[in-house]
Amino acid sequence: MNGGPQALAVTQGEPAGIGPELIGMAWQARAEARLPSFFCVGDVAFLERRLAEAGLAVPLREISRPSTAGAVFQEALPVLPARESIVSGIAGKPSPADAGGVIASITDAVELVRLGEAPGVVTPPIQKDNLYAAGFGFPGHTEFLGDLSSRFEGVAAPVRPVMMLACDELRAVPVTIHVPLRAVPELLTKALIVETAVIVARDLEARFGIADPRLAVAGLNPHAGEGGAIGREEIEIILPAIEELRGMGIRATGPHPGDTLFHPAARAEYDAVLTMYHDQGLIPVKTLAFDRGVNVTLGLPFVRTSPDHGTALSLAGKGTASPTSLIEALRLADRLTR
Ligand SMILES: NC(=O)C1=CN([C@@H]2O[C@H](COP(=O)(O)OP(=O)(O)OC[C@H]3O[C@@H](n4cnc5c(N)ncnc54)[C@H](O)[C@@H]3O)[C@@H](O)[C@H]2O)C=CC1
Ligand SMILES: NCC(=O)COP(=O)(O)O
What structural domains and CATH numbers belong to the chain? Predict the structure, then answer.
């Protein structure tokens, strides 16, 4: 472990998406946005080409060790070569041939954190279907990072990663994530809700400094099941989970009807909401703050944040996408690593 402040490791993201240019735009905003130092784990030649195509004047400096990134950062965007290069990298046109480079960037960045050479990882978006086409076996970063966590010393495998989308107004945690909607009722169990809530409560306290956090738990069905008339998951699964959490001393409330859980007065009653499926939690966050939302993975032995948006292929290469969510992700990672 090096002494002194260290630079955050930023992965390259989908080469065909907006990620590479957002990294350049965030670097350009470093002084105005008072950003922590960071370096990109990627392919220098590819980044140089994509930034130039997007009309961004960003000098790059290849580094061989993360410890030199801080000294370089004010003058140039430091880039530590990933183990695999980008072979296609055409804006707007993902290629399965680039999956190796995308995955290597993530794996290498996490390894640097494991070695104590970077304090945390910030990940621009990946094009998930492109990685699946190349045989990637995880739904997204969240699950992949959970898997990589087993390499960390003292971590008892398997790690259960928990996705949280956060903005000033709301923190939302989907209990089920990237699964078909029709699979949700079968996947929802009391154990899954309790396990998720315990991780959220622990990390809100330990990483976010929220003492004794208040967790609201959403129902699955309209009107939280209307006493069992419109579905029984609330009675048979969600309420028993809440009761178990209360028995553990966790301040959990619910099941709350999903449609009345996100207006300002309702949001004032909790520090985070557990939603039963992806869109139930992500729609409110992205509606309130698409340009500021941050995706943070809880339950990992290290800090990982990400912008809330995806690869926006139709904007890639134009230099017009907004870097504000990535900037917020860098700021939050910096805060959480201190
Ligand atoms: N953390 C990650 O790796 C994430 C990856 N994705 C992936 O991204 C791909 C595309 O997903 P979509 O659902 O289309 O969502 P998206 O966020 O890429 O795009 C949704 C809409 O928002 C716009 N948009 C997105 N980011 C923007 C920005 N920074 N500035 C201005 N406008 C922006 C897009 O142009 C589009 O109109 C999918 O493969 C998905 O899996 C999506 C979310 C997170
Ligand atoms: N919709 C959020 C999302 O897709 C984030 O996925 P991940 O790659 O961060 O797991």
Answer: 8-157+303-337 (3.40.718.10), 162-283 (3.40.718.10)
